[in-house]
Amino acid sequence: MNSHQLTRRAMLRGLGVTMALPWLESFPVWGDEPATGHSSTAPVRLAVLFAGNGFHGKEWWGKGDGRRMQVGKVLQPLEKFKDKMLFIRGLYNAEAGKGGIHSAQTGNLLTGAPLEGGGGIRSGVSMDQLLAQKIGTQTKVPSLVLGCEPSISALHKGYSMIYSSHISWSSPTTATPLELYPALAFDRLFRDDVSKGDASVLDLVREEARSLSQRVSYSDRGKLDEYLNSVREVEQRIQQAGKQGRLQGWRPTLAKPNLPRPADGIPQDIDQHMRLMCDILVLAFQTDTTRICTLKLNNDHSSQRFPLLGVDYMIHHLLSHTDSADWLKVNQFFTQQVAYIAAKLDKIQEGERTALDNTMLLYLSSMLHGSTHDCSQLPVILLGRGGGRMHTGRTLDYLGKANRKMCSLYLSMMDKTDVHLDHFGDSSERLAEV
User: Fold this and answer.
1) % helix / strand / coil in the chain, to the nearest 5?
2) The predicted structure's pLDDT at residue 63
3) What is the structure's pLDDT at 4?
4) How far apart are CA 254 and CA 149, in angstroms?
5) Which pLDDT value is given to residue 330?
6) CB 178 within 8 A of CB 166
7) pLDDT for 204
8) pTM of the full predicted structure?
9) Comparing C-alpha atoms, which of 344, 341, 426 is closest to residue 381?
10) To 5 degrees, how large is the angle CA 412–CA 414–CA 416?
11) What is the pLDDT of residue 263?
């Protein structure tokens, strides 16, 4: 952590707690001190959301631009964000087609690097972690890597399933550890020691928050109250998620557990788990605690079940082979999580833009369709406007074009964060249209 930069940013501090503040018009909070005396410009953020096993074979599509843009049923939850969306067709990772399915298609999704087979582990540094190395020192947490399904240690088609369980790589041989526990992810944002504490973080900064409220404008006072209330709401939901004890998928033979339930565990309902992680991502961006976050909603070759959707007879991986109405229902449930994040970010005003306008939200999978395991073109959408640097409301089709590498997209995206590289992964070209 760059302490010099952080000391110049507005914080609320308490015993063992540091809370970065959201954008406020009354004074600069983003680490720069503009000579104009006006509030500083909010930074560009990157969020990557991953869903395994591809999408419905007939319902992932987009065509047209602007208000006339049309999307398939998988993306219908994002209808209201079409003007802030890029639907991108035809991009791929060449190395993903050289090995087996699932693991070999996922392990280099954000790296573009060749993978080591035979149980070995070697990919490359992923795009999110490269940005964390370049700009992560500007925030309390360099990057946040969240997950909703545990990593798998096994082999599939000659490749380690560590590859199918991780999209973020800190080094070619090190998958970035996933934070599966909402309580611990929350603590990373606000607690200085990342250890469990009984006191609410808001209780620990109450006095500073009261003092700050008296020094900001009327509109900022409302924004500050809204932010503190959202932090409290997430805290309370994390506490309740650990107490309710609802079970997801397979039911045990005991009606009640015969051992005390461990504290601060993973929420047992997928909808609770995913929604808490989505809220934590939004809080992380709203407070500028981090500018880089990946959220792996599940693994490729996932074993998740969905009784909450009335689909409890088949795991996610096998459902992906069916192109059924139930598979579409599951796809839309995942897209709803993306829409939820987009809606929350779009309600956060940061000067003339919203937090969504200042974000690049990349939603993708490691194959186009689970029924065919097709990785010759990948499902990709971008939401947000990258700080006003992306022209959205368009569909872009690269199928059949000479430059259709995923790493070309990553180079273009990194440019929006002012990280300019000569090459990344297998590409030294940008996508000029992005």
Assistant:
1) 35, 15, 50
2) 95
3) 35
4) 24
5) 98
6) yes
7) 65
8) 0.84
9) 341
10) 80
11) 35
pLDDT confidence of residue 377:
97
CB 431 within 8 A of CB 398: yes
**Pair of tokens at residue 50:** 């991953």
CA pair distance 91, 77, nearest whole angstrom: 23
Cα–Cα nearest to 363, from 383, 377, 392: 383
pLDDT for the residue numbered 29: 58
What does the pLDDT look like over 277-301, one tens digit per residue? 999 999 999 888 899 999 999 999 9
Q: What is the C-alpha separation between 52 and 70, in angstroms, rounded?
A: 24
Q: Residue 298 has which token pair?
A: 């599940």
Tell me how far apart the alpha carbons of residues 182 and 266 are, in angstroms, rounded to a whole number: 7
CA dist., res. 83 & res. 356, Å (int)? 12
Helix axes 206-213, 218-244, angle to 10 degrees: 150
Scored b (16 or more CB within 10 A) or e, 117-131 reads: beeebbbbbbbbbbb
In the three-class reduction of DSSP (H, G, I as helix; E, B as strand; rest coil), residue 20 is classed as strand
Distance of alpha carbon 23 from alpha carbon 30, whole angstroms: 7
Q: Kindly report the backbone phi and psi dihedral angles of residue 333, in degrees, each rounded to the nearest multiple of 5, phi listed first.
A: -60, -40
| Cα(96)–Cα(92) distance, integer angstroms | 8
pLDDT tens, 68-95?
999 999 999 999 999 999 999 999 999 9
Q: The tokens of 112 are what?
A: 């573009």
Residue (of 48, 151, 92) closest to 367 by Cα position: 92
Strand partners, 364: 50, 380
Measure CA 318 to chain center.
24
Could you give the 3-state DSSP secondary structure of residue 362? Answer: strand
**3-class state of residue 88 by DSSP:** strand
C-alpha torsion angle, residues 38, 6, 390, 357 (rounded to 10): -70
Q: Residue 26 gets which letter from DSSP?
A: S
CA-to-CA dists, residue 121 to 51, 118, 164, 167, 299, angstroms: 22, 9, 12, 13, 17
What is the pLDDT at residue 155?
87
Closest CA to 61 of 73, 46, 53, 52: 73
DSSP for residue 149: S
Segments of the chain scoring below 70 in pLDDT: 1-17, 20, 23, 25-40, 193-199, 201-202, 204-205, 240-266
Cα 135 → chain centroid: 17
